[in-house]
Design a protein that fits this description.
5-stranded parallel β-sheet, 12 strands, single chain, alpha/beta, 347 residues
Length: 347
């Protein structure tokens, strides 16, 4: 369950190590355009319609964000049948299946779709390929909300491939008409390994028309790869149910970090992690507000890591329009945050 963020008391000690202490701060990091759009959508719905506004599942996978929105009047539910008839409900950034949309309509709910447009793109691909009688191998984690939503677009045509190992055993009816799609927040390297193993078995395997793994996931993985090479320790800020945050830990270890840990808050950093560590790499998942990263930097500063070097591998300026219901204010004028609020959220 979400918890209210604790105030941080400096508990770390500044213990000497060989060499100079420093932080390599990955960039890009934190909020992506899809997350920003979804979070602002809930905030604007609360402003426009008043509390409570219901949200199916966590709007994004971050404890801090969910806790803050709950404090503003958002109520998070597992399914739409928990929402009072006629109330406003926001669909999370991870997307929903047509069955969920239909269930919301049956309850006469005022639905606001905050699905990331890049997830919506994958949904449309699934519909199109199923219509053309392709079998769809959906690379992703079974049970993840995004995978459930995409598979729900064409349940008769989709088989989920959880890992590269699954690629060696999955069966299809017609190897000449098969295509792969993927969850948007996966490890790029692991996904490509899965595709290569699938193609060994199904040489006619078709690619999606464009890359399914989102730009932000790829950019954050590229940045942490560069950081990890020179880091004794990598700290990833992000929640346990955030697929892209978990992947960043794995990528850091694969690309040279001697140790890597995921945390929600700065007060979870343990003194023993810093033993003998001269260089700490820091990054955050795509659903993490920048304030949590800054708290980590401040906390590490108390342990002597005051030298911060940003390692930037890409620039991001993409913004998505809010759901159509929220692009105007109550008086009908265009809202000044119709394109979200990214510029005020990410350093």
């Amino acid at each position: 369950m979400p918890r209210i963020p604790r105030s941080r008391t400096a508990l770390l000690q500044d213990i000497p190590v060989d060499g100079s202490k420093r932080i390599l701060l990955a960039a890009p990091r934190g909020y992506c355009a899809g997350v920003d759009r979804a979070v602002v959508a809930v905030e604007k719905a609360l402003e426009r319609y008043g509390a409570p506004v219901y949200v199916r599942k966590q709007i994004v996978h971050n404890i801090h964000v969910v806790t803050e929105l709950e404090a503003q009047g958002a109520i998070f539910v597992d399914e739409v049948d928990e929402v009072p008839e006629g109330a406003h409900v926001v669909f999370s950034a991870h997307g929903v299946s047509p069955a969920v949309v239909e269930a919301a309509a049956d309850r006469r709910l005022q639905a606001i779709d905050a699905t990331c447009p890049l997830v919506t793109k994958v949904h449309r691909e699934a519909v199109r390929f199923a219509r053309d009688d392709y079998e769809i191998l959906l690379i992703g984690h079974e049970g993840h909300e995004e995978v459930e939503g995409t598979a729900g677009e064409a349940p008769h045509a989709v088989t989920i491939v959880n890992s590269p190992a699954d690629a060696d055993t999955v069966e299809v009816k017609d190897p000449s008409k098969v295509v792969w799609l993927s969850q948007t927040t996966l490890s790029v390297d692991e996904t490509m390994e899965t595709v290569e193993r699938l193609r060994l078995r199904f040489p006619d395997l078709q690619n999606p028309p464009s890359d399914d793994i989102c730009y932000a996931t790829q950019n954050r993985q590229v940045a942490i790869k560069k950081v990890a090479v020179g880091a004794d320790l990598v700290i990833v800020v992000g929640s346990a149910n955030s697929s892209n945050s978990v992947r960043l830990v794995e990528v850091a270890l694969e690309y040279g970090a001697k140790a890597a840990y995921r945390i929600d808050y700065a007060d979870e950093i343990k003194q023993e992690w810093l033993d003998g560590v001269a260089t700490v790499g820091v990054t955050s998942g795509a659903s993490v507000p920048e304030v949590l990263v800054q708290e980590v930097l401040e906390t590490l500063g108390t342990a002597g890591y005051g030298d911060v070097e940003e390692v930037r591998t890409a620039e991001e300026d993409l913004m998505f329009s809010l759901p159509k219901e929220l692009r105007q204010n109550a008086s009908g004028a265009r809202d000044d945050r119709a394109l979200g609020g990214r510029s005020t959220r990410q350093a």
